[in-house]
Amino acid sequence: MLKNRKKIQAPPLSLGSPDVVTLIDTYFNAYNAARLRESCQLFAHMIERNAFIGVSLSGALTPAGLSSVITPLMEHGFIDYIASTGANLYHDLHFDLGFDAFRGDVDMASGRYDVLLREETIFRVYDVLFDGNVLYETDDWLYKVLSAPEFQQRMGTAELHYKIGKYASAMAQKTHVKPSILATAYAQGIPIWSPSPGDSTIGLNIAALQVHQSSQHPCGPHVDPSIDVNDMAALIHHAKIIQQSLSGVVIFGGGSPKNFVLQTEPQLQEILGFEEKGHDFFVQITDARPDTGGLSGATASESVSWGKVDPERLSHCVTAYLDATIALPLMASYVLEKCKPRKIRRLYDQRESFMETLSTQYRASDKFKKICNNN
């Protein structure tokens, strides 16, 4: 059992700190530090194998400034598509518009000053603070953007975010700030889905447009979640079945984005009847527990039972139980240092052709013919 195991024999740290790759590979030897090391190494392996890589983002990552960690990964071709909460995308727009967030402290995080914060119109995301005008002015900007003619149609969230990203990119250039996730996705042609589009302030503004609907006033976009499901299934169908490529997911947190990047495999296999085995690589950063249902359908082994992960690739799966705000900067630094940039796939630009191929193959399948005969 010990024959091929690497010894835990790290040299003492000196004043000249090692680079992040050496630090993680050498000193992260056990417990969740080891799982984080394995996550970094597996992420790098996905990149080096040129796998199609999807990332899910949950929680309040962008208010903490972590889009500055995510966008370099996008620009280096290390992320091909994203599923995110709408809140992460909305709060990231504040920075495109030239607004600021501020660090709080342990007293702020305890809720001790929430009544005072309310009186001063300051919003709190745990220990991150926003002036109230940041949200109100972002809402005004977003409402105007969503009122533009190009939004007055039925669409999925990938198209919605791509179009918002065009305006966000223009604002980032005007305010001379680093572009947000949406602005970067627009520039790189990276599709971003939000599987619960009503559960964010972007969704609230869309709903407000429909309340204000009149003959003189636009009603805003009609967001259709079915488009998102088919978009993602068509992308994975292209990657795994058409291209015969490897596919991997990197999951930060839980919620609907977690399930969304995984459910495409059951969609292809169970619903549409394609022969597929699941994703080839699986990295999950979470602080949830499986025994309370918080990781329902998303431990690596449980995902195998659903067809979400290839059972023959279970050794290429890692779950690290720690805070994503700690893991994400370390993982990003690791792969940015270790891996060469990849060519941007621009999967958003190919969505329609992916969907056309999926539809053609499904309509020629035995399952489709059986359903038609039964009806």
Number of strands: 11
Helical run tally: 17
N-to-C order of helices and strands: HHEHEHEHHEEHEHHEHEHEHHEHEHHH
CATH architecture: 3-Layer(aba) Sandwich
Largest sheet properties: 6 strands, parallel
Low-pLDDT segments, ≥5 res: none
Neighbour order of strands in the largest sheet: 7-2-1-9-10-11
Average residue-wise pLDDT: 92
Helix content: 40-55%
Account of the protein in words:
Helix 2 crosses helix 15 (324-338) and helix 7 packs across helix 10. The chain has helices at 20-27, 31-48, 67-75, 86-96, 106-109, 114-119, 132-146, 157-175, 181-188, 201-211, 225-242, 255-262, 264-271, 300-305, 324-338, 351-363, 366-374; strands spanning 52-57, 81-84, 102-103, 122-125, 128-131, 154-155, 192-193, 222-223, 247-252, 281-286, 317-321. The longest helix is centred in the middle third of the chain and has 19 residues, at 157-175. The model has no long low-confidence stretch (mean pLDDT 92). By secondary structure, the protein is of the alpha/beta class. The protein has a single domain (30-374), classed as Deoxyhypusine synthase (Deoxyhypusine Synthase), CATH 3.40.910.
Which features characterize this protein?
globular; three-stranded antiparallel sheet
Write a brief structural summary.
With 375 residues, this protein is an alpha/beta fold. The protein is built from 17 helices and 11 strands. It has helices at residues 20-27, 31-48, 67-75, 86-96, 106-109, 114-119, 132-146, 157-175, 181-188, 201-211, 225-242, 255-262, 264-271, 300-305, 324-338, 351-363, 366-374; strands at residues 52-57, 81-84, 102-103, 122-125, 128-131, 154-155, 192-193, 222-223, 247-252, 281-286, 317-321.
